[in-house]
């Protein structure tokens, strides 16, 4: 009996050791899978951020390029007023009165503005594009750093674990290669060489001249280390919330975005658009004043020429200004506020929290409505033995093959009887005998 008990105890101990070893192996490979999945998640987030940054850069660069092309065309039109040779008649050939001299000064001012406004537009556009390119390089540099950090996270964690570990060389004697030719490489544990979660794949090899450690001591040390590790991980995972900070920097990049990083772009781009519109208006007014003076000097007998031409252009300029002001301050004002609210990072984070919680409307007003809906959905009897007998008859009919008859469900409780709650109805149904075809049998 004693030998049999000792044999059983030894077998149980061996089984426990095998289970412990299998558990450690499963935990190691589970941690490896967790590390790989975490690394894949970081890389996917970085790829998403990179695609988002690329789309934003494409939109901004395309808008700036279009503005630069239009500004260049307007600048060429301003140069055309100077180099094409179309000017008002000279004072030696035509006697200008005081009113016409005022228009000559206005022509000179408008011709200068037709060159200045497109030039300013081009300069502001180039400055905004330069800032966008710098911000793009900054964001891409951050993405490359985070990508390298995500790829090298296992290696860095292993090195930090080695540096922070208080163990000496006696803690893992079999993990050092005792070859003298590779002394520098042999001082690095195989765990670091294979990754943070790599286990010791072989048995500990005893070093020459050193006494082997007793198995009980190794087992006790491993047990204490395992318990310390498990309780330490418990605090880390459940109190420090490390899983929520897995990709904190990447999420911040998504929340901020490139449009929030370019500060001068939001200030320079509207001014460049304004200068472009002013340059167009200056070019139209130059044409109006120039040809008005030219027609008035060269066609004095037909004053309707310069009057009609000047009147049409002035009406078009005034209508354009009114339309721009109406579009800016009336038609697009609400839309601009909506887009600005949606693109702000604070509104994205606080959008869900701002919704009122108490705005939900209850579906049922009382327990009787809940019970009636429950009975109607599952076709269960409401109360009374007659209904139960009807269900038994229907179950027997269904077993015999005849068409079952659905019993009529009473819509109102009986006179003088209190409506039962759901818990009471469930207790009655559970206490009912098990019947074939019964919904709760």
Automatic annotation (TrEMBL):
Low complexity: bias regions: 178-190
Top-level taxon in the UniProt lineage: Eukaryota
UniProt KW keywords: Membrane, Transmembrane, Transmembrane helix
Keyword Membrane (UniProt): yes
Region (Disordered): 161-190, 381-441
Transmembrane segments: 57-82, 102-124, 274-297, 309-327
Protein name: Transmembrane protein
Source species: Symbiodinium microadriaticum (Dinoflagellate)
């Amino acid at each position: 009996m004693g030998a049999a008990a000792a044999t059983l105890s030894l077998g149980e101990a061996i089984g426990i050791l095998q289970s412990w070893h299998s558990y450690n192996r499963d935990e190691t490979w589970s941690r490896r899978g967790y590390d790989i999945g975490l690394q894949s998640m970081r890389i996917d987030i970085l790829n998403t951020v990179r695609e988002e940054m690329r789309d934003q850069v494409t939109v901004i660069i395309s808008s700036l390029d279009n503005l630069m092309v239009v500004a260049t065309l307007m600048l060429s039109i301003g140069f055309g007023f100077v180099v094409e040779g179309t000017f008002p008649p000279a004072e030696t050939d035509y006697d200008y009165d005081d009113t016409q001299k005022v228009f000559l000064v206005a022509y000179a001012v408008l011709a200068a503005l037709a060159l200045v406004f497109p030039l300013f537009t081009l300069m502001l556009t180039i400055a905004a594009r330069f800032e966008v390119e710098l911000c793009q390089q900054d964001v891409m540099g951050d993405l490359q750093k985070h990508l390298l950090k995500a790829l090298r996270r296992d290696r860095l964690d292993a090195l930090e674990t080695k540096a922070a570990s208080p163990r000496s060389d006696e803690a893992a004697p079999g993990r050092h290669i005792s070859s003298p030719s590779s002394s520098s490489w042999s001082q690095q544990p195989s765990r670091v060489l294979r990754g943070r979660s790599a286990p010791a794949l072989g048995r500990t090899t005893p070093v020459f001249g050193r006494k082997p450690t007793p198995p009980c001591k190794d087992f006790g040390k491993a047990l204490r280390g395992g318990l310390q590790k498990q309780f330490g991980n418990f605090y880390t995972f459940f109190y420090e919330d490390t899983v929520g900070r897995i990709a904190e920097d990447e999420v911040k990049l998504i929340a901020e975005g490139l449009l929030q990083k370019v500060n001068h772009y939001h200030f320079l781009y509207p001014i460049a658009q304004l200068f472009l519109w002013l340059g167009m208006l200056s070019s139209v007014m130059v044409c109006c004043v120039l040809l008005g003076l030219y027609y008035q000097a060269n066609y004095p007998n037909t004053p309707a020429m310069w009057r009609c031409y000047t009147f049409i252009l002035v009406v078009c300029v005034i209508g354009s200004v009114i339309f721009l002001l109406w579009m800016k301050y009336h038609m697009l004002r609400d839309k601009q506020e909506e887009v600005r609210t949606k693109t702000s990072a604070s509104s994205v984070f606080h959008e869900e929290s701002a919704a009122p919680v108490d705005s939900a409307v209850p579906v049922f007003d009382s327990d009787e409505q809940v019970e009636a809906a429950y009975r109607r959905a599952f076709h269960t009897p409401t109360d009374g033995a007659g209904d139960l007998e009807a269900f038994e008859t229907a179950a027997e009919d269904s077993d015999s093959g005849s068409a079952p008859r659905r019993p009529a469900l009473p819509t109102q409780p009986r006179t003088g009887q209190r409506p039962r709650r759901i818990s009471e109805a469930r207790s009655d149904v559970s206490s009912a005998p098990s019947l074939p075809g019964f919904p709760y049998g």
